[in-house]
Specification:
Distance between the termini: 33 Å
Low-confidence stretches: none
Number of helices: 6
CATH topology: Rossmann fold
Order of helices and strands: HHHHHH
Radius of gyration: 12 Å
């Protein structure tokens, strides 16, 4: 599992350099998940891509929405989509 996570990070290192949550104090993991939420990936797909559980993605997403003062996923995407 850890090897797969490492491979994911290598493949997506250009994406992970983008930071949308610096002003909201997102953790690195929250930033990774936030970028995928903005791409409109489902929580299940994010979990699969990042080799973490669905529940972990939901918890991070909840923290992301709270930190960015968004009510839900739709509000978050609207706020950060360019």
């Amino acid at each position: 599992m850890e090897i797969n996570s490492y491979i994911y990070r290598l493949k997506n290192s250009h994406t992970l350099k983008l930071t949308i949550g610096h002003q909201y104090n997102f953790t690195n993991r929250e930033n990774e998940i936030a970028l995928q939420i903005i791409k409109n990936n489902s929580y299940k797909k994010i979990a699969k891509n990042m080799f973490i559980t669905y529940g972990t993605v939901r918890k991070h997403a909840s923290n992301i929405y709270m930190k960015s003062s968004c009510i839900n996923r739709k509000d978050f995407i609207k706020k950060f989509k360019k």
